[in-house]
TrEMBL record:
Protein name (record): Response regulator
One BP annotation, GO: phosphorelay signal transduction system
InterPro entries, sorted: CheY-like_superfamily, PPM-type-like_dom_sf, Sig_transdc_resp-reg_receiver, ST_Response_Regulator
Organism: Photobacterium halotolerans
PROSITE patterns documented for this protein: PROKAR_LIPOPROTEIN (PS51257), RESPONSE_REGULATORY (PS50110)
Gene3D superfamilies membership: 3.40.50.2300, PPM-type phosphatase domain
UniProt-listed SMART domains: REC
SUPFAM superfamilies found in the cross-reference section: CheY-like (SSF52172)
Coiled-coil residues: none
């Protein structure tokens, strides 16, 4: 499958670059090399490769800057990042830019690289939809088994790498869509696996979000959280446009967890907010939550963990006042979390005009 494929390697370490080049040539690939990001961009102008391999720690134009340029100007090129273990924050940032996979130096087993390349190439041939690294975890065939197991083992045996990766995948703390704003705040211990939040504003004005407590899954927590992230995004792409049912989403995710063969139960929370009618639907999966509005305080019962039949948990539905609401969780490992949904004009009403400030100043 690799024979005849054009692979561009952007790597400043000549020894490592020659090693990768030699292996790829032995597999029948056509290989081009670049010593830094600037040379890499010049190489892209000469021809679009089938796959791009790049390091993140490079001179002249850093690997992160290079990945950003590629994602902006060459979004059709699948990128695999090969990076040292001390750069997981950059790896996470690269994944948010659509990087298809990442490998950690040193490559003790070169066949992991082959598996990653074959996985990415197969995904390119089988779909025209956008996919990111996490989506690779949804593939279940012999071609990618070795690579998948490598990722799982890497995350289990290196909790610090797993932690840095999950923290790096956290989205912006504030996001606006139309008349509404969503923000979140999370405080957590540096000694445990973190919580991971993600959210997506849909075209019809709905906000879909989730929170997952990686620590609740033990050694397999990080790998499970990454799988759930992929299943969540896959569900949004394929089914969310026609459905508004969290139970259906949870059932799809739990089916994927069961099929994976390695996922463990995880505590968390899932929600959908519809800006059109101000409705908020929430299902807690093992973590009790509190919803606070101007009308009062409501408890969202914990229910069972995701992976233990959470699709049967109680679905809590609310119509938020114009001032919005705050959803808080405090019993999630060593973390404290809150998400706030507010209407922008309601926020302005609570601001004190400068003239009023002057009058009330003592």
């Amino acid at each position: 499958m690799l024979e005849g494929k054009d692979i561009l390697i952007v790597e400043d370490d000549p020894v490592f670059r020659r090693m990768i080049t030699g292996f790829l040539l032995s597999q029948g690939c056509e290989v081009r090399e670049a010593e830094d990001g600037l040379q890499g961009l010049r190489a892209l102008r000469d021809g679009i490769p089938d796959v791009l391999l790049c390091d993140l720690a490079m001179p002249v134009l850093t690997g992160m800057e290079f990945v950003e340029e590629v994602s902006l100007h060459y979004p059709m090129i699948p990128v695999i990042v090969i990076s040292g273990t001390g750069e997981m924050a950059d790896v996470a940032a690269a994944l948010r830019h659509g990087v298809k996979d990442f490998l950690v130096k040193p490559l003790d087993n070169i066949m992991v690289l082959k598996a990653a390349l074959m996985s990415v190439l197969k995904a390119q041939e089988n779909t025209t939809e956008y996919t990111d690294f996490s989506s690779q975890l949804l593939q279940h065939d012999a071609t990618v088994d070795d690579e998948l197991q490598w990722h799982i083992n890497e995350l289990e045996s290196n909790p610090e790498i797993a932690r840095e990766l999950l923290v790096g995948l956290m989205p912006d703390t504030l996001s606006r869509q139309g008349d509404w704003q969503m923000s979140y705040c999370v405080l957590q211990s540096a000694d445990v696996q973190p919580v991971l939040l993600d959210y997506t504003w849909l075209m019809d004005g709905r906000l879909a979000f989730y929170l997952l407590d990686a620590e609740s899954g033990g050694r397999q927590g990080a790998a499970t959280v990454l799988l759930i992230r992929a299943l969540f995004n896959d569900y949004l792409r394929k089914r969310m446009a026609s459905e508004n049912d969290i139970s259906s989403m949870l059932q799809t995710i739990e089916n994927g967890m069961k099929q994976s063969g390695y996922a463990v139960p995880i505590k968390g929370l899932f929600g959908i907010f519809d800006a059109c009618d101000r409705s908020l639907t929430v299902v807690s999966t093992g973590s009790e939550a509190v919803l606070r509005t101007s009308d009062g305080e409501m408890i969202v019962p914990a229910g069972t963990s995701l992976g233990d039949g959470a699709r049967k948990n109680l679905t809590s539905s609310y119509v938020l006042p114009h001032s919005g609401a705050r959803l808080s969780l405090s019993k999630i490992g060593a973390a404290n979390f809150s998400i706030t949904i507010q209407r922008l004009d309601a926020m302005k009403e609570h601001e004190i005009h400068p003239a009023v400030k002057a009058k009330t100043k003592v």
